[in-house]
Amino acid sequence: MTTARAGADSARRALDLLFAFTEQRPVASVRDLAEALDIPTPTVHRYVAMLRDMGLIEERSRGRYHLTMRVTALARAARRATPIVDIAEPYMRKLSDRIGESVLLNRLVHGQPVCIHSVDAATRFRLSFEPGQPLPPLRGASARLLLGGLNRDERERYVDRALQSGARPPVSGRDGFLREVERDAERGWAISNQEIDEGVWAPAAAVSSDGTVVAAVSAPCLAFRVDDARRQELIEVVRETAEAISQAIGL
């Protein structure tokens, strides 16, 4: 039992090391990784050596490492195993072309809101998001809609667990956030006004399957580019897209 537990902890730490590489930190030294993961430097050296042997990371320059293209195969496999992405893709692309904004598809993955697919706008100035990018658990329109798919007890446990883990608290406070979740769940759409990133306004709508929320479609925009009329238009077309995806899932 002790040996099995130690092996599981070792595997978990190795995966944590992989996830320590992000778009903001694509290259890192052993010291960087040790600080990010709060584990001893010799331990990081051991995991780095193992992941190098597996072809998952490689040395870019002396003492600095990055992920290899082999990791992209995992992303492709995850995408292929997630049919909702294939169903939603054409609707998301149509929406992006129509409004000239990037469109995201978000889901709860192991209790964490995650962007599982994105379609970038073709315009020069756009917001860009990477699939696999986790979202703040207590901020944003998509997070509220995804929580709306849980029952009340599950929502409260989710919020309390997120707060205890050090997540950014919701703008409206714990109880206010839970009321917003209930409101947005009832109407099936939500908006976020600079809750996550300064200067970003985003509408989102719930995607459902058999009456259960399975995802949320959102279209983050630069707030200064959208007036009240434009915001109402965006809310409506995002809702239409989410409804079309929901119907396609049920076919």
Would you kindly provide a written description of the structure presented here, covering whatever features stand out?
The protein has 251 residues and is an alpha+beta fold. The protein has two domains: 2-71, Arc Repressor Mutant, subunit A (Orthogonal Bundle), CATH 1.10.10.10; 82-250, GAF domain (Beta-Lactamase). It is 50% helix and 21% strand. The chain is built from nine helices and ten strands. Strands 4, 5, 6, 7, 8, 9 and 10 form a seven-stranded antiparallel sheet that branches. Strands 1-3-2 form a three-stranded antiparallel sheet. β7 (189-193) and β8 form a beta hairpin. α2 (30-37) packs across α3 and α5 runs antiparallel to α9. The longest helix is centred in the last third of the chain and has 23 residues, at 228-250. The protein starts with a helix and ends with a helix. The model has no long low-confidence stretch (mean pLDDT 88).
SSE run: HEHHEEHHEEEHHHEEEEH
SS-based structural class? alpha+beta
Q: Give the name of the CATH architecture of the largest domain.
A: 2-Layer Sandwich
By CATH reckoning, the class of the largest domain would read Alpha Beta
Say which CATH homologous superfamily of the largest domain is assigned. Answer: GAF domain
- Terminal-residue CA separation: 47 Å
Q: Given the structure, what is the number of helices?
A: 9
Rg (CA only) = 20 Å
Relative helix content: 40-55%
Query: How many domains comprise the coordinates?
Result: 2
Strand content: 15-25%
* Uncertain segments: none
Q: Main beta sheet: strand number and arrangement?
A: 7 strands, antiparallel
* CATH topology annotation of the largest domain: Beta-Lactamase
Mean pLDDT, as a whole number? Answer: 88
Number of strands: 10
Please state the overall shape, judged from the principal axes of the Cα atoms: globular
